[in-house]
Amino acid sequence: MGLLYNMNEKHTVRRPAIFLDRDGVLTEEKSYVCSCEEMRIFPYAEECIRKIKEKGYYAIVITNQSGVARGLFTENCLMKMNDYLKQVLNVDAIYYCPHHIEGRVKKYAIVCNCRKPGTGMIERACRDFNIDMEKSFLAGDRASDIKAGKNAGIRTVLLESGYGTAGLESNVVPDYICYDLRDMIKILD
Ligand SMILES: [Mg+2]
Ligand SMILES: [Zn+2]
Asked: Partner of 136 for a Cys bridge, out of 16, 51, 60, 85, CB 3.0 to 4.6 A?
């Protein structure tokens, strides 16, 4: 698992977190985004992250990026995309899973616990930050996001700005369904 966060900041204050999926939540969903040039950050995302932080939450991105394992882009390239996203959105941290069991890049073709619906990225964030999980949320656009949130025991929000309900398996029931990140801000305590 990889991560990017600002080592200079102190994360000792106990706060809830909003765990945010990337594609379909902060950026346009378009299967595999392989470069910064291809990444389309939603125009409202920056303001939403600012509001999330103003409301006293950590803004933590957790993203499955199996394109690395599939050989579509390198981990180094993904780190550049993360740098760019962090710079534009000023999130507190970005955790990513580069793995996929069916990947063709051997190093990443493993079963891991970080790929959502696994909770490895959330657990890692809990070690790096002092997170009040009872008041935290996970926002994503796919069943794997909602399942990851449920596996971690936090409230889940399905956003319609990516795959949304159309792509959701019937046995997955999010706590909230919102149109997009702007809509989600309204439910925050
Ligand atoms: Mg997504
Ligand atoms: Zn992984």
From this structure: 16
